[in-house]
Amino acid sequence: MRIVVPAGGVGGARFLRGLRAALGTDAPTPGDQTTDSAITVIGNTGDDITLFGLRICPDLDTVMYTLGGGINEEQGWGRADETFTVKEELAAYGMRPTWFGLGDRDTATHIVRAQMLAAGYPLSAVTEALCERWRPGVRLLPMTDDQVETHVVVDDGDGRRAIHFQEWWIRHRAALPAERIVSVGVESAKPAPGVLDAIAEADAVILPPSNPVVSVGSVLGVPGIREALVDKTVVGVSPIIGGAPVRGMADACLTAIGVQTSAAAVAEHLGADLLDGWLVDEADADTRVEGIEVRSRPLYMSDPAATEAIARAAVDLAVELSKERR
Ligand code: GDP
Ligand code: CA
Question: Using one digit for the tens of pLDDT, what is the confidence trace for 111-137?
Fold first, then answer.
């Protein structure tokens, strides 16, 4: 069974580990990056940022490290056994910004990427090269090779300005009220090589519990991707439980785009043309959305077994709904 997963970082990566287990493709093999992989991930690159001359792709790296066994498990992002000497030395030179958690091990990844990009390789080729080390057991594609960056329009009293999503999220902890979230450059972006083919060949599409605005929303915003996905059987896992994001600050993003923080409102926002099925938590069992098959079950990714069970439920619902479609 071939499954396509548009994913962000932390929530997306945790879910993907469960999905990989549910599909029995847990043991990474040397064939990882071939098109035979059961799972193709379309990774969000809207969080990407250039700092100190390095191109940093937080969501692609979080997926790669999590599935490749290099992640800081408690934190959910960044490398295990990380040190921050480079960050301290940069600060000693007065280099800005100081709010980005640039680890030493992580920096090596960004140096490889920067060097390959400077040599003319597209991001998709760079990602493939990085995955040769990490062997994530999925095919990891960036949503686009073009530069698309999420910016947030804020008004902090000094007037209205747009700041990079990372500055809003990390430096300001999403506490500055956002007037608008803009995907800069998305209009002219093209899906990365392999993305539309993977969708065309997929038996099902699963939306993981990633941020519905700045992760899944960014991927869907690339012209051509959402249009290709609507032809498929699509099942989503709600990132909202009982009217609140489970971890993180997704509510601030939803508020900025005028969507309520509820499992039903997120499904409506994604749209009944896109979503065939929607998994919600037992706390939201009374959720009804016109045109979408809603099922409830426990949705906390509390440990690998619970996460695998959620992934299996999503796959089962996709199989059931795709039979109905035929
Ligand atoms: P990303 O969007 O994948 O980069 O990861 P984030 O961690 O930024 O966002 C994940 C989204 O999934 C947030 O809206 C969280 O509330 C949600 N989430 C996090 N953990 C869980 C979980 O255990 N279960 C469910 N259903 N949602 C979760
Ligand atoms: Ca993210």
Answer: 999 999 999 999 999 999 999 999 999
At residue 17's C-alpha, the angle toward residues 12 and 20, to 5°, is: 115
Per-residue model confidence as pLDDT tens digits over 217-272: 999 999 999 999 999 999 999 999 999 999 888 999 999 999 999 999 999 999 99
Domain range holding 236?
1-46+144-326
Reading the block at residue 186, the tokens are: 């998305």
Q: Is residue 291 part of a domain?
A: yes
From 47, 210, 307, the mutation candidate for ligand 1 (largest count of ligand atoms within 8 A of CB) is 210
CATH code for position 320: 3.40.50.10680
CA distance 190 to 195: 10
CA 181 to chain centre: 16
Asked if residue 299 is part of any domain, the answer here is: yes
Centroid of ligand 2 to alpha carbon of 253 (angstroms): 12
- Does any domain span residue 216? yes
Half-sphere exposure of 214 (CA within 13 A, CB side): 31
How far is ligand 2, taken at its centre, from the CA of residue 125, in Å?
Answer: 21
C-beta separation of 70 from 108 below 8 A: no
Q: Say if 39 falls within a structural domain.
A: yes
Any idea which residue has 């040599």 for tokens? Answer: 119
Give the contacts of 22 (CB within 8 A, at least 6 positions apart). 308, 309, 311, 312, 315
Does the beta carbon of 58 sit less than 6 angstroms from any atom of ligand 1?
A: no
Q: Count of domains in the chain? A: 1
Q: Which of 282, 280, 249, 283 is CA-nearest to residue 266?
A: 280
Q: Buried b / exposed e across 237-275, counting CB within 10 Å, b at 16+?
A: bbbbbeeebbebebbbbbbbeebebbbbbbbbbbeeebb
How many angstroms does the Cα of residue 26 sit away from the middle of ligand 1? 22
